[in-house]
Design brief:
This protein has a 4-stranded mixed beta sheet. It has a 3-stranded antiparallel beta sheet with strand order 5-4-9. A two-stranded antiparallel sheet has the order 1-2. The protein is elongated and about 75 Å long. It is about 40% helix and about 15% strand. The protein is an alpha+beta fold and about 350 residues long. Helix 3 crosses helix 4, helix 9 crosses helix 12 and helix 10 crosses helix 12. Strand 1 and strand 2 form a beta hairpin. It binds iron/sulfur cluster (SF4). Iron/sulfur cluster (SF4) binds next to helix 10 and helix 13.
């Protein structure tokens, strides 16, 4: 592995904390960093931007204010609150962890790194963030943002996607943590990565509190760091999505399998290829839904981490009442909005529901 020196790094601590005290964004979970608030916010912030998380966080803690309530929340209600945030296994793991805290920790959020790390849905980074922010423990919290910041500070072209690099950086960062402010130090690094030392070759070195200590900046290579291996291309999938309404105006939904992408979520029926209107009519008959008036809907695309969905859609208004189909439900548009969590991958088609 490439050599680089941490010798100058202790000098970043003071200016970093002074900048954080001055510039940190006011966030609801920062003003009152209880273990519950920090936990919920950190889980939401995995894969999701701060601005998008804020309204979800407010609603979540309003409707599910504590661990006991989370352990007992009904799955459908939980999914409904999470609807639109994506990566729904995060919500399921929150509930599982809350149940584990109720039975294994007398309902009190555990206060050691190891016990936090052992909860479902919590990896090294999240455990470090909760342990340091909510409990003041001197542990590091190293995610992609922090790795990027340090690759630049160290002027290192090391591959930050490698677990060995992460381990090495985590050990180096741990030695920098000031014992009186571990949570602020970790949050300051995250904040710097989110607002100044931005990804994709866009660091704002001109306003950075650490530019005087940054090897990447000094060498003029900050924009080229970190070095990342080329990403694997996403798998491309085509789908035909059907908004099927019965003569009473109720919409067909079906539940996805318990495992895999969007596990257990509700969705509009779809088939894994592009259908024409005639083929759609035949598909409806295969499902024993009879004749229908079929109208084309606009095409749509949704990008997941590893897969891209390219969708075409049709609205089908059935002429005769629909039979009971295993795994399907028929619900009014209002019921759908209140009770069923439809993944945002189908947002374009949810928008078509109100059309007659
Ligand atoms: Fe990042 Fe530039 Fe600051 Fe270095 S000087 S830490 S590259 S923003």
């Amino acid at each position: 592995m490439e050599e680089f020196s941490w010798a100058g790094m202790p000098a970043i601590v003071e200016p970093l904390l002074a900048w954080y005290d001055r510039a940190a964004r006011v966030l609801p979970w920062r003003s009152n960093p209880t273990p519950y608030f920090v936990w919920i916010s950190e889980i939401m912030l995995q894969q999701t931007r701060v601005e998008a998380v804020k309204p979800y966080f407010d609603r979540f803690v309003r409707e599910i204010p504590n661990i006991a309530a989370l352990s007992a929340v009904e799955d459908g209600a939980l999914m409904k609150i999470w609807q639109g945030l994506g990566y729904y296994s995060r919500a399921r793991n929150l509930k599982k962890a809350a149940q584990g805290i109720m039975t294994g920790h007398d309902g009190v959020f555990p206060g050691t790194y190891e016990a936090i790390r052992a909860l479902p849905g919590i990896g090294d980074y999240t455990a470090g963030a909760i342990a340091s922010i909510a409990f003041g423990l001197p542990v590091s919290a190293v995610d992609g943002n922090v790795l990027r910041v340090f690759a630049r500070l160290l002027g290192s072209g090391v591959n930050i996607a490698q677990p060995a690099t992460k381990k090495l950086f985590a050990a180096g960062i741990r030695r920098l943590i000031p014992p009186d402010r571990p949570g602020d130090f970790n949050q300051a690094l995250m904040e710097l990565g989110a607002t100044v030392c931005l990804p994709n070759g866009q660091p704002k070195c001109g306003v950075c509190p650490l530019s005087g200590h940054c090897r990447g900046y000094e060498l003029g290579i900050a924009e080229t760091l970190p070095v990342k291996p080329p990403k694997k291309p996403r798998r491309q999938e085509t789908l035909t999505v059907l908004i099927i309404k019965d003569p009473a105006g109720r919409v067909a939904l079906r539940q996805r399998p318990e495992k895999g992408l969007l596990a257990g979520m509700w969705e509009y029926p779809h088939v894994p290829e592009y259908l024409t209107a005639d083929q759609t009519a035949r598909q409806l008959k295969l499902w024993r839904l009879g004749e229908a008036e079929i109208t084309e809907l606009p095409a749509a695309k949704h990008v997941f981490t590893h897969v891209e969905w390219h969708m075409v859609g049709y609205k089908a208004r059935l002429f005769t009442p629909a039979p009971v189909l295993p795994g399907w439900v028929w619900c009014s548009v209002d019921e759908l909005r209140e009770k069923y969590a439809i993944p945002s991958a189908f947002r374009a088609y949810t928008g078509a529901l109100r059309l007659s």
